[in-house]
Design goal:
- α4 runs parallel beside α7.
- It is built from 9 helices and no strands.
- The longest helix is centred in the C-terminal third of the chain and has 27 residues.
- By secondary structure, the chain is mostly helical.
């Protein structure tokens, strides 16, 4: 874990050499954006969370928006890798897809402390008016939909899922389910036991 830098009077805007791990700084910033949202997060909040001086933060990421975009990229990379691993496991495609969807019921209600998803939260806060965020979110959602569609295609080839399913439509359908689970999970009256049956209903629609 990166040790916070001590900030001396009069040095905050001069910055210091980039002797820090950008991935660690981005992860710390992502947690702040995740907890507070973009607009409620100040540069001072990010400096406190990362241990970076203002000049170092600007030198590494440009500005607050640059740090948000870096946080989204790093967060999405990890989550896309997890989704791909789950969907391409040795298990048959139906079980792999079920496990992947059930993960989101747990993530929404337990693992994420009901904070939702950083990408989803940012999309709800900043779209459609921010083109930089829109480009990131659209790309991430396309990648998710493609991974989900590919799993269904493999299931069709194996005789598990209906062959008349359109790959683009089914990918977007499953993406809508995941995003819906993420949003419902932010509501305390919905628990994992409420969301898990939705997964089996979704799978039944594919058979």
């Amino acid at each position: 874990m990166m040790a916070p830098y001590s900030e001396k009077p009069g040095t905050a805007d001069r910055g210091r050499p980039r002797e820090f791990d950008p991935a660690v700084a981005i992860e710390a910033a992502a947690k702040v954006f995740w907890d507070q949202g973009y607009h409620a997060t100040s540069i001072e909040d990010l400096c406190d969370a990362t241990g970076l001086l203002r000049g170092s933060l600007y030198g590494a990421f440009g500005d607050k928006k640059g740090m948000l975009l870096a946080a989204i990229d790093q967060y999405a990379e990890k989550n896309l890798a997890r989704l791909a691993e789950s969907l391409t496991s040795p298990r048959p495609s139906r079980e792999g897809l079920r496990a992947a969807l059930l993960y989101y019921t747990r993530a929404a209600t337990v693992l994420g402390s009901r904070h939702g998803c950083l990408v989803t939260n940012t999309a709800l806060e900043m779209l459609p008016n921010d083109p930089d965020v829109a480009e990131r979110v659209e790309r991430i959602f396309r990648q998710m939909a493609s991974l989900l569609a590919a799993t269904v295609i493999r299931g069709q080839a194996a005789g598990v899922f209906r062959t008349n399913l359109d790959e683009r439509t089914v990918g977007n359908f499953l993406l809508c389910v995941i995003e819906g689970l993420r949003v419902l999970g932010k509501i305390k009256t919905y628990g994992e036991k409420d969301l898990a049956p939705i997964v089996d209903l979704v799978l039944a629609a594919l058979i």
